[in-house]
Design goal:
This protein is α/β, with parallel strands linked by helices. Helix content is about 30%, strand content about 20%.
């Protein structure tokens, strides 16, 4: 959803991924660029490039390579909560006045503004609508990470 929101706001959007297989999906969501993080040249091409990174990863990860893609006064906003606290050498932040911030959820006013923005710009979630009798299979697929975005239960099938 961050990709869709940023694209609808007119931002230049780049998606980072360890897998080149996700590029088509990223572009379909509105990304202008795609960076394969395991490719050193791809990462080097965006060194000191970004004003803002929205990090939604909830798995353990090394933040340093991503911090190095921020330009002077750039900010990485953490939305995901990994099981362990991330480690980062302070020099990566200090040298270029980079920042790490966190964000959770807004209140009623912010939520209403977001919904209004979605309606105005036709920003919608990508879902897979499932029947109630498919719930066990959906759960198994979720455990295997075989879910494209999110499942939504069709309550009419209860």
């Amino acid at each position: 959803m961050a990709v869709k929101f940023a694209a609808a706001m007119g931002c230049e959007v780049t998606v980072f991924s360890t897998s080149p297989n996700k590029e088509a999906d990223a572009k379909a969501l509105g990304a202008h660029k795609f960076v394969v993080t395991k490719d050193k040249e791809s990462m080097k091409s965006v060194s000191n490039y970004f004003d803002l990174i929205i990090n939604t990863v909830s798995a353990p990860m090394d933040l340093a390579p991503y911090i190095n893609t921020l330009r002077v006064d750039g900010t990485m906003v953490l939305l995901g909560v990994p099981p362990e606290a991330p480690q980062l050498h302070a020099f990566n932040l200090i040298a270029k006045r980079r920042r790490i911030a966190g964000s959770l959820i807004g209140g009623i006013q912010e939520t209403q503004e977001m919904l209004d923005f979605c309606a105005e710009h036709n920003v919608m979630s990508d879902i897979e609508l499932i029947r109630m009798d498919y719930i066990n299979e959906a759960y198994e697929r979720m455990l295997k990470s075989d879910v494209k975005y999110r499942f939504v239960l069709d309550l009419a099938t209860i």
